[in-house]
Write a structure and sequence with these properties.
There is one protein chain. The N and C termini lie far apart (147 Å). This protein has 39 helices and 18 strands. 50% of the residues are buried. It is an alpha/beta fold. 63% of the residues lie in helices and 8% in strands.
């Protein structure tokens, strides 16, 4: 009997051993399922986990079963099988709450994942229900500043983003970011996720450069944790593709989109919904590139597959129909486009939680089509309906004459498109029926569009993004000027004329204003100098990187640039938040009283121009008030200005005759209409617009039978002319009026190897040294010439200069304005001898006058809402009160002669515009028939503050005189006081 006991023991123990072996196998399967999940092989992960679940059999649920439910829910979420994912997760949640408690870590993890699935399903309200419960648990379990709580804020931000509430989304993301900064490593996955989501938000806000920077940083961190072909990496390529596409550069978007498709096809397969979605995004890029056939083919392929994989109201699927409609519209197939838009709209509306910004966009696209199809009333109804989805508060679509406050608008970038179309439709209705209320509401709508534009751009730290926003929505300003003028004509109320002028001015030099206001406000808000220095250092580092950029920048370059840009913008954001000046960064309306006062003190008349496709608007403002003229230009403006630009380097007789004709035609268009409003000896301050930046107003003359350029009745003979970037900028900029104590005149020498290095023919300038010596001699300044006139020497002296004079070579690159620049001597071990516009922007000048005596320093790319991106503008941006620049090739001899006269007039105490007028008239008095051609003297202009220069000796004399008078007054006051004392004593 004793010998059978071991066998009996083994027999009884066998089920336990087998069960233990099975338990070990299940643990192994769960581990392998998790491993496959993190490798991105979701189908394999699901199969392994289902095997583990089947081995659990019908035993009562336990911790292991709960873990399998959790993992299967996450896997099915990645596979976009949402219903099945929710079944697993809700079963697991019920067990976790019963076994561990509703506030347990286990229950919280299930709440988080259920919320994530609902968020993925575009059901943000349901998602928030679970996220809020999870947030409260995580605060108790881990603390209010824990990484877990940070993730919850990130999820709230994602849901707000999907609902089009970008301000709320940004606030939640910033909470998350602050927690991660305090609790997580800089290269952790936490940061790659928040950078990715913030990049997505900034793309939706139109802040594309920031979206690209954050997207690049997110991808960089992601690749530290995952292989390049992991499906999770594809999302980051996709985000960059979207940002480049929305920025308007599909060529740069295409490689990222193709990489996304490649990764997803190899990892998830061609039928996975994420892969299929990437086909649609690739199709959109092909459509933007004009390859409509390829785009339609990909969209249809994607939509057929998505119909099998997603519920009919899912935004990915509905967006596919919408995108097909967009392609049809681009091709001019309006009925086909309308059919697709209507289908998308119906599905969006039938969804459980329709995304409001997508509903609004569908309605706007349909309204635009109805407008093209001559059905404006139908279009207007759709616009009114669309607005209701983007407003916080009640909205009655039938109240067409109601305009909401900007503060009530949730998704400002989406609403902007709607309100502009509404203004256009109501303007058309006014012209059909002449009902003043239509015109009034159209004007209010256009004004709201401008207000939204300024608020949106005020949150951009990228000048490029601000300019892109302005160029895409320039119609807002054109419409505001046009409608204000119409209201002025209809009512006779001159307040509308001022409003037209204000909107004209607000569309000029916004970035210059921004820079001036930013520096002034930050200083006045008490921001420490150390922080301001840190801003400057980062700006210099970014400029240095931008200068090193090649035609095909490396991934390392992009990562370095993204890192610097993010640091820079986060620094600005923190400073703005602390100083409270964040919201005020845009052009303020011009104050008529302040403008009249300054014009009166200066004895100037402001002449501001604005033009759209049909009309030229001219505003004439002096100390007494405002007058205006509107004139149809019949498309003549651009061709006339183009002739000046094309022929300004030619001096053949045929060209000379054509110059006279063009100048007289422009005089008829630009000056004759306002001539009755001007008086002789007026000092004109001209604010050009658009193509008029290229016009030399001083050279304009009425038609004359004489072919002798010495005898033409130039504008110059009657009025001095100065220029301003905008009335706002001119009014806001202050002139120091201090004496000129430091005058530096540069005349670099050219030759040797510099021409070969840069492949430019930098010829000697025979009169440059004489010009520099004459300029410096008049004001007792210092001449830096020849090999000593290096870029390093200029950088050293420019920060302390009152006046800078540069007689050198320059180059203007219209296609790349920041690569324009000025040449110095090559004998420099620290710098390359080429001071680019980008470097000039980062100088810290405090000059009263910068004279850039070189070719094309006033020329450059014409930028909507800014003007010409010239070297002269760069000097203004850097801090120069006024700039003299050249709009075309500067003849060495005539330029030197005019500028010598100019400095003599300045020395005599003349304002800068008067001084330049006198210098040119002196030049014309001495010029022969050839040299009197405007080519030789019309290239120079003075822009900015026209305040006279005071020499240091004048300043000391007046200072000594003032002190003497003060001492005499004080002595007399004391004597009178003693007399009063004596009288009171008696």
């Amino acid at each position: 009997m004793r010998s059978n006991i071991p066998y009996l023991f083994i027999f009884l123990l066998l089920p336990v051993l087998l069960n233990a072996q099975e338990e070990t196998l299940i643990e192994t399967l769960i581990s392998k399922g998790k491993e496959a999940y993190y490798d991105g092989d979701y189908q394999a992960s699901r199969s392994i986990l289902l095997d583990a679940l089947s081995r659990k059999g019908t035993t009562a649920p336990d911790a292991e079963w709960m873990e399998i439910q959790y993992r299967l829910g996450k896997v099915d979420g990645k596979l976009r099988v949402h219903g099945r994912a929710l079944e697993y997760l809700e079963s697991g949640l019920t067990f976790a709450e019963a076994e561990y408690g509703k506030k347990s870590e286990e229950a919280s993890d299930f709440l988080y994942e259920i919320g994530a699935v609902y968020s993925q399903m575009y059901a943000p309200q349901k998602a928030s229900t679970y996220f809020l419960r999870c947030l409260e648990n995580y605060k108790e379990l881990h603390g209010a500043e824990s990484v877990e709580v940070g993730y919850m804020y990130m999820n709230f931000g994602i849901d707000a983003l999907k609902m089009g509430d970008y301000a709320e989304s940004e606030e939640q993301f910033k909470k998350c970011f602050a927690i991660f900064q305090a609790s997580a490593e800089p290269q952790s996955e936490e940061f790659n996720r928040i950078y990715s989501n913030m990049g997505y938000l900034y793309r939706k806000m139109g802040n594309f450069e920031r979206a690209i920077e954050y997207g690049t940083k997110a991808l960089e961190i992601k690749l530290l944790h995952y292989a390049p072909d992991h499906p999770g990496v594809a999302k980051y390529h996709r985000n960059l593709a979207r940002a480049w596409q929305d920025k308007g550069d599909p060529g740069k978007a295409l490689p990222f989109a193709l990489k996304t498709v490649e990764i997803l096809e190899n990892s998830l397969g061609k039928d996975h919904s994420t892969t299929v979605g990437s086909y649609g995004e690739l199709a959109g890029i092909y459509a933007d590139m004009g390859e409509y056939q390829e785009a339609r083919k990909l969209y249809r392929k994607a939509n057929r597959k998505l119909e099998k994989l997603l519920p009919p109201t899912h935004p990915y699927l509905v967006g596919g129909y919408f995108n097909v409609g967009t392609v049809y519209e681009d091709e001019g197939k309006w009925q086909e486009a309308l059919s697709q838009y209507q289908k998308a709209l119906e599905l969006f509306k039938s969804a459980d939680s329709p995304p409001p910004q997508l509903l609004a966009e569908a309605l706007r696209k349909m309204a635009g089509l109805y407008q093209k199809m001559a059905a404006p009333e139908d279009a207007l109804k759709l616009i009114q309906e669309g607005m209701g989805y983007l407003i916080d508060g009640d909205w009655l679509p039938e109240e067409i004459y109601k305009t909401p406050a900007a503060s009530a608008v949730l998704s400002k970038i989406n609403f902007l498109e709607l309100i502009l179309l509404k203004a256009e439709l109501l303007e058309g209705r006014f012209h059909r029926g002449e009902k003043l209320q239509d015109l009034q509401t159209a004007f209010e709508s256009a004004k709201l569009a401008v207000e939204l534009l300024q608020e949106i751009s005020g949150r951009y730290y990228s000048e490029a993004d601000r300019q892109l926003l302005m160029s895409r929505h320039s119609e807002a300003y054109k419409m505001s000027v046009r409608l204000a003028w119409e209201m002025y004509e209809q009512t006779g109320n001159r307040d509308y004329l001022y409003e037209a002028f204000s909107y004209s001015d607000a569309n000029k030099s916004g970035s210059l204003w921004y820079q001036m206001e930013r520096n002034r406000m930050l200083k006045s808000a008490g921001v420490p100098q150390s922080k301001l220095d840190e801003i400057s250092e980062l700006e210099a580092a970014i400029s240095s990187l931008e200068e090193s950029e090649t035609e095909t920048p490396t991934e390392v370059y992009h990562q370095k640039m993204a890192g610097q840009q993010i640091r820079y913008k986060e620094l600005l954001e923190s400073i703005h938040a602390q100083s409270g000046v964040y919201e005020r960064f845009w052009t303020q309306p011009v104050s008529p009283d302040e403008l009249h006062k300054k014009l009166k003190v200066n004895g100037q008349t402001l002449v501001e121009y604005f033009h759209d496709e049909s009309f030229l608007y001219i505003f004439v403002i002096n100390s007494e008030g405002i007058q205006g003229v509107r004139k149809a230009h019949a498309g003549k403006l651009k061709p006339l200005v183009s002739q000046i630009r094309e022929t300004n380097g030619l001096l053949e007789m045929e060209s000379a005759n054509s110059w006279a004709e063009v100048l007289s035609s422009l005089h008829e268009l630009l000056i004759a209409p306002i001539q009755p409003l001007l008086t002789n000896n007026d000092r004109l301050l001209i604010v050009p617009h658009g193509w008029l930046h290229y016009v030399p107003f001083e050279c304009l003359a009425p038609a004359d039978e004489s072919s002798d350029f010495r005898n033409l009745d130039y504008l110059l003979r009657h009025w001095s002319v100065g220029y301003a970037w905008s009335a706002s900028f001119w009014l806001g900029a202050k002139s120091t009026g201090r004496g000129v104590q430091s005058f530096y005149s540069f005349a670099p020498g050219f030759g040797g190897e510099i021409a070969a290095v840069y492949r430019y023919r930098l010829t000697m300038l025979p009169h440059a040294a004489e010009e520099a010596k004459a300029a410096a001699g008049i004001f007792g300044g210092q001449v830096i010439s020849g090999a000593q006139a290096t870029e390093s020497r200029f950088r050293e002296l420019s920060t302390e200069a009152d006046v800078l004079h540069l007689a050198t070579h320059a180059i203007a690159r219209e296609e790349a304005p920041f690569q324009s620049g000025i040449w110095f001597s090559e004998s420099d071990t620290e710098e390359d001898g080429f001071l680019s516009a980008l470097e000039i922007y980062n100088l810290k000048l405090n000059t009263q006058l910068s004279v850039i005596s070189a070719c094309y320093t006033g020329a450059g790319k014409l930028q909507e809402g800014e003007g010409i991106m010239s070297l002269g503008r760069a000097f203004t941006y850097a801090g120069s009160e006024s700039v003299v620049m050249s709009h075309w090739v500067a003849n060495d001899r005539s330029t030197a002669e005019i500028l010598e006269y100019f400095y003599e007039a300045l020395k005599a105490g003349m304002p800068k515009d008067r001084a330049l007028q006198k210098a040119r008239l002196q030049y014309l008095d001495n010029a022969d028939a050839l040299m009197a051609h405007p080519f030789f003297w019309g290239h120079l202009s003075v822009n900015g503050q026209m305040t006279p220069l005071k020499s240091s000796s004048d300043w000391m004399v007046w200072g000594a005189l003032g002190l003497s008078l003060f001492l005499v007054f004080m002595a007399a006051f004391r004597r009178a006081g003693k007399r009063r004392e004596r009288k009171s004593g008696t």
